[in-house]
Give the backbone structure.
Amino acid sequence: MIIGIPKEIKAQENRVAAIPPSVALFTAAGHTVLVQRGAGEGSGFSDGEYLSAGARVVDTAAEVYASADMIYKVKEPLEPEYGLLREGQIVFAYLHLAPDPAQTKALMDAKVSGVAFETVQLANGSLPLLAPMSEVAGRLAPQIGASLLQKINNGSGILLGGVPGVAPGHVVIVGAGTVGTGAARIAAGLGARVTVLDVSVERLARIEELLAGQVETLMSNSQNIAASVTHADLLVGAVLVAGAKAPVLVTEEMVKTMRQGSVIVDIAIDQGGIAETIDHATSHQDPYYIRHGVVHYSVPNIPGAVPRTSTLALSNATTPYALKIADKGLEQAMREDPALFKGLNTYKGRIACAAVAAAQDLAYEPAALT
Ligand SMILES: NC(=O)c1ccc[n+]([C@@H]2O[C@H](COP(=O)([O-])OP(=O)(O)OC[C@H]3O[C@@H](n4cnc5c(N)ncnc54)[C@H](O)[C@@H]3O)[C@@H](O)[C@H]2O)c1
């Protein structure tokens, strides 16, 4: 198979789908890999490293799209890329089609097989190609919060770890899933006092076991959230109700009770956020705003801040699937792997993902694999 790795064109997107060791795996298996010149630059991988791994480096995205059987990228194709798509081509990337009718139409019109990282799903319900980015975002949250707590960033001037004779800062994390666990681990490592809330006792038990003695856990209900938010120096929103908008768990009244200069890092912003006062997404260039004296951070693509780590983590997770598709062909790979089959969003001009069809009021036609 010819695998194409274009350079990402989304604003501030510095990740790349395949790292040179992945390319070496593909070429060793007999596949041809086309890498657009400079595709790995933002993540610190040079064209020379791709060449050494056996790739052919080409100058333009058009050359990649014109020859590749599979376009392997990070973010969804954007408008300038729509015209490059070819019938029967596989696009393996984060697609996020539900809120994106223009891209959905482009993929349907071009009759490409759109396989979305975010809907590849294991039998236990977990999303293996989404989890690595949640790991990154969760672990970054205390780092971001610690920086925003500094006076120079309008923070309260609290050092999360404290010092001998001075109490540490209090980090309150709502949601004990992948993001929440990563955030708790790093916050505890910094020496902060950490409280984690979740509606799932199993999740709370797991985090207690993992971070024995380093975190307090509480059932997530409005009373416990209100009581915890008041004392939070850093509040981390890490809730997910699969497929749904994030529930508003932290009301404006609760935010008003926080100490001036305290910080909210609402990682669930990509699902709308859990704080009532988080009313818009911010960006890496302009990451926070102040409401009721509290610093609000709501960047929807947090892993973009650390593209090197994010690229490595994403590539680790997606490479085995890309290799399987290349080795067996998409249809056979999906027949053998139900998790990958769940990733199929568009197929032969039709919507093959129920959630995307429902979101856009389009017909859902599951792919018939003969
Ligand atoms: N902003 C970013 O860059 C970025 C990056 C990665 C993930 N995310 C987002 O972070 C959120 C969390 O992702 P995740 O991978 O940790 O999900 P996850 O499914 O692993 O964990 C979500 C947790 O939320 C808990 N939960 C559900 N309702 C709750 C409630 N009312 N109160 C408290 N907890 C509740 C669940 O029990 C679960 O433990 C998602 O919205 C995800 O899209 C954002």
